[in-house]
Every structure is written in C-alpha cells, then in structure tokens.
Amino acid sequence: MARIGKLIVLLVGLWGLNWLIQAFAADVYAYELQILNLVGINIIMATSLNLINGITGQFSIGHAGFMAIGAYVSAAMTTFGDPWIATHGAFLPASVRETGWFLCALATGGGVAAAVGWCVGLPSLRLRGDYLAIATLGFGEIIRVVILNLDVVGGARGFPGIAERANFFWIYLFVCLTVWILWHLVRTPKGQGFYAVREDEIAAMAIGISTTRYKVTAFVIGAFFAGLGGGLFAHYLTYLHTNSFTFIRSFEFVAMVVLGGLGSFTGSILAAILLTALPELLRTVSEYRMILYSLLLIIFMLVRREGLLGRREFSWQWIRALVHHQRSPR
Known about the structure:
The chain is mainly alpha-helical.
C-alpha cells in the first residue's frame, strides 16, 4: 500500500509540474524546457547502459542502435496505426485512445529492442573487453544503415510527421520508473549476481552463478529501456533521422556512464545532466565550445579517475558520513 501511495504522489506531482510548465512557462522557456526533457531521455539511456557496462562489467558501445530500434518502431506504430485505432476505437475518448496507443507503441519499441538485445547478447558472450566493444559498435552501425535504406520510415530523408505525445510528464514518469526498477533489480539477492559477474566471472561460475544468464539479462533489460528512451525521443522531437543514432551518440552514453562512475546509478544521472547541459551552457562561446567541452571532460577524468561518484550511490547515510568526515579532526 505504501508503494501505491508513493506512485500516486509521484503521478500527481509530475502532472502538477507538467500543468504549471504548460500553463506558464512552456512558451517563455521553450528552449530550457527542451534541454530539460532531453536530460530526462539521456538519464534513461545512461542508467540502462550502466546496467550493462557498470554493473555487469561488459563493454557495450552500441547503445544508440537499441535507441534507434525503439524510436523507429514506436514512431511507425503511432504514425501508421493511429488511423486504424481511430476507426476501431471510436467509442473511446480521443485522449484515452491516443494515450493508450502511445504506451503500447513505447512498450513495443522497448520489446523489439530487448529482443534484438537478446540476439546480440547471446553470440557476444564469447567476446570480452575490446572485442565485445567492437562487436556492439558494428551492431549499432548495421542497425543505422538498415534503417537508412528503409523507405517505409523515410530512409535517408528522415521520418517526419510523428505525433507529439511525449512531454515533461511522460518523460520524467519513465525516468522515475527506469531508475526505480534498475535500482531495485540489482539490490535483490538474485540481482547481486550482476556484481559477481563484474568482479570475477570465474569465481562466480565456481559458486554456481550462471554468468551467461546474467550477461544476457543485462543486455535484454538495458536494450529494453534504451528502446523506451528512443520511443520518447521520437514522440518528443516528432522527427527522426539516422544521424541522431551514430556511433558518436553511443560514445556520448558511454561517456556519461564512465564520467558518473561505473556502477553508480546516481553518478550516471549526474553525468547525464552535466553532459547534456554543458554544451548548451557553452553556446555563449560557440567558436570554442567543443574545445572547452573536451578540455573539461579531460580535466574531470584526470581529477576524478573513478568518475564523479565512483561506485557510490546517493543516500542520506552517505551524506551524513561525508559531513561527519569533513567535521572530524584530522
């Protein structure tokens, strides 16, 4: 009952914030609102990749490929399926019909991305480290080139006319659900197997942990949430092009995970906020923006090699311990 109460509070809070933004700030702060929503989508992408790279210890750099699958599948469902739903679901109010179909499209996009994640994760189990990274990089490029040649979703022209269904409410609702599910997944007794695979795969196998199952599970779950993030991305920007899902995009997600701290969900969230907002903050020096951005990343990694939070997570106990450490005499 307590969890249901928290969920209701979350829904009401997000709905209220979304209403206030749309009523008073959407027109004045449209640019800032877009950055805020892209931050939310990048949080979903970074935390889902953290399950694969940070928690399970694999090295995947093809996350943009899963995002592209979710984006195009969900966008195709709403674009081509809306007329059919309008005809056969005419007895329902338009808002209910559109919202229900939008959620189905997001789930399907995530499900297809998860299925592809299983197909990629299973044969990749024989690979580790750099070899796995190259394989996933190749997968991401294959997906992009395949979509680029599909005329049904626009091909090289891009996919315009996608219904605008994602907004602040939906994006941050799925941010909360993604972080909550992943956070609790790895903290269950069975979820500790993800850490065991990362720390010592041979030792994990010796005590009876199925490393194959955990590796594939990490790929499938990570791919599902990446597809979900892609669906939100498509229905927020209302236009898709494969240039949004290049290997550079995958590297951006890897940078968020590494900068935040491998294995820390809180760190991934902080890094997603920082690396999404920083290029926009540097627009005042647009000529040197990317140089400054790259220099700041280098400085961050030199100063904090383990990432912003290392493997730590935010908690009130950690804050109290940090404050107590600062106050205690040296």
